Amino acid sequence: MKKLSFLFVFFLLIKPLWADEGMWLPFLLKQLNEADMKARGMKISAEDIYSINKSSLKDAIVSFGGFCTGEMISDQGLLLTNHHCGYGQVQTHSTVEKDYLTNGFWAMNRAEELPNAGLFVRFIVRMEDVTTQVLKDIPTQLPENERQSAINSRIAEITKKAIEGTHYEATIRPFFYGNEYYMFVTETFTDVRLVGAPPSSIGKFGGDTDNWMWTRHTGDFALFRVYAGVDGKPAPYSPLNVPYRPKHFLPISLKGVKMDDFTMVFGFPGRTTEYLPSQAVDLLINETNPHRIKIRDLKLRILDKEMKASDAVRIQYAAKYASTANSWKKWIGESKGLKKFKGLEKKKIVEAEFANWVEADPNRKVQYGSLLAEFEAVYQKQRSVNLSRIYIDEAVQGIEFMRLASRLSGFGTKPIDKNDPKIVDFRKWTKDFFKDFNFQTDQKVFAGLMKLYFENTKAENLPASLKEKHAQMKGDWDEIADSFYSQTLMSSEEAIQQILDDYSENNIDRLLHDPVFALFKEIQAYDQAKIAPVMKETNDKIDGLMRTYLRALREMQTKRKFYPDANSTLRVSFGQVKNYTPKDGVQYLHYTTLDGIMEKEDPENEDFVVPTKLKELYASKDYGQYGVKDMMPVCFTASNHTTGGNSGSPVINAEGHLIGTNFDRNWEGTMSDVMYDPDMCRNIAVDIRYTLFIIDKFAGAGHLVKEMKIVR
Ligand code: ARG
Ligand code: ASP
Predict the structure, then answer these.
(1) How far from chain centre, in Å, is Cα 480?
(2) Which residues line ligand 1 (CB under 6 A)?
(3) Residue 572: DSSP 8-state
């Protein structure tokens, strides 16, 4: 009876693993997924997606700056990504007078395209399973750090050989927690110019209010162009460079999307943790997320007030605000989802099943018998420092001066020549830092976040200087912040440059007596003595346990197809255009239209301002070839499994044509980084027809559409 009810609960909670879940390796599609993909409607072959013998879809996909994805959409190196991915670049080129964030930017010819120092795009030349070479002769029982260093030297040899005589780079990354290793040979271009970006009232329409939510009406796209040397190879920025001719670029389909159409997302998902044990999920939803959310809550309130009070601060902090708010909101959705859909309970059920499976076989008992208990012990230990870690990372490091101090402290306490590359580099970093820095704003952030740090750290672990000031000033945090900020010598770019000009004993000594710098050093010392070592030790231990756990799970669930967690390597997710039911009695459509933009319009709320030109186009229904009669599609949802880093990824149809640009997920589904649910998890894309409509009809940049290959 007991067994029966256990089984019953089991089937209720664990749905069959749908094909929608998973982020697959392009070079393994043929073997693992092609049949599934075809069954779902795909017309092209795995070889069309990834091939080393001919050009394939993968040749059109790039990692955009290492944090987003982009795709080639013309034979002239034209690149499509999200507005929020190019946001930093648009912001860098913006000033109060030339405000591209507010007004948009469109290069009407090649000469007007804007170079971006520091930005790169990376193509994948090929990938390969190198597990055997990497792990050959490495004993399974080696301590984690010895294992890692043995593997690292192996990796160095293999990658060196792989790129000999080429201008490529190669990296080898662990998969399934180091059960497997794959190599990626890449080609990196650094001359990437801004071509076009809509005004934020289109590219960020809905702002942080609509972020992570459906229904959505954001034209979240931006255009760049990749330039190469005249030989077609990567070259640093030069006016003599020419548009890069990619091996493949995506044709664009104007056919649109219907429910259940096959879709594929091709890009660089950053990080997921789908195989965590229950203890980790428990820690995440009951401690880590709630505290991170609380800290950012406060920071955002402070920044918001400051930005509303000054246009200069608004521009300086726009990108920083957006990225702080983005994770904050995701964590809220993730925690809600994991609770509502019983993430913790499901993990426990799998673990119970695992324990039974181990128990059933003496051999397994030897290999895996202690695994679950070891997880329990190591997470217990990690729990003892988890909160301190969070408050240092989120509250202390959330203060810009603390990050500046952290960078400065990296130079150590020995004099360094002013021409040392480290100093030269840092000089540039400092310039960027102060361009977007406001002293008063940061002082307010300090007052708020230091208070939280103070209140959530055991007294014995608090820096003496902070306790002293706190007592002296009777806990008045504005006063405490002022006492630090009014006496610091880190207050301006000039002051820092002066120290860098002469990083001598004298200046180092001044720095060590600086109240802000000294405070940071105290916190750092405590971190290094008490927190970091425990974190390192437990994380190493967890890595080793996870490797064993994954190996065991794969032995246990023989029918299940396993995909490795996202790790910023190129992946394919496939699914279908799908709507969803967020709660009882409510069903969403799978697409939105321009009508919804007009419904949401609110001139009083900056998130919902609609540009005049867009209203005119709406009134006259002037949608050109992009609308469907008098309807202009804007966004759509599908069931592709995606995560951070997939932004800017192409959404591709059954024929291999571009139909949208991925940019977000639904709030009810942000738990997909830990647990994907096929009924609830959706990715959100801008319909390519809306993107082209904005480029052509709104911005008058139809010359860009002429470069593309349009399929009707
Ligand atoms: N939530 C999306 C992602 O994680 C989009 C973020 C940008 N949009 C915004 N309104 N902040 O990156
Ligand atoms: N918006 C995310 C990104 O920037 C995508 C996601 O998390 O769904 O990559």
Answers:
(1) 35
(2) 84, 204, 207-208, 211-212, 322, 326, 644, 647, 663-664
(3) E
Q: Which of 414, 600, 364, 399 is nearest to 481 (CA)?
A: 399
The residue out of 489, 524, 547 marking a domain boundary is: 547
Distance from Cα 524 to the centre of ligand 2, integer Å: 32
Interval 29-47: pLDDT, tens: 999 999 999 999 999 999 9
Please give the number of the atom of ligand 1 that sits closest to the Cα of 325. 11
Residues 244 and 309 in one domain: no
Q: Are residues 411 and 528 in the same domain?
A: yes
Same-domain status, 295 and 425: yes
Q: What is the mean pLDDT of residues 280-295?
A: 98
Judge whether 617 lies within some domain.
Answer: no
Q: Are residues 237 and 309 in the same domain?
A: no
**Does one domain contain both 386 and 515?**
yes
Residue 309 sits in the same domain as residue 358 = yes
Backbone angles phi, psi at 616, to 5 degrees: -65, -45
CB 45 within 8 A of CB 53: no
Which residue type does 589 have? L
What is the number of the ligand closest to the CA of 684? 2
Q: How many domains does the chain have?
A: 2
In this structure, what are the phi and psi dihedrals at residue 650, rounded to the nearest 5 degrees? -70, 140
Instruction: List the structure tokens of 145.
Output: 């750090």
Q: Express each pLDDT in 309-341 by its tens digit.
A: 999 999 899 889 988 999 999 999 999 999 999
Record the pTM.
0.92
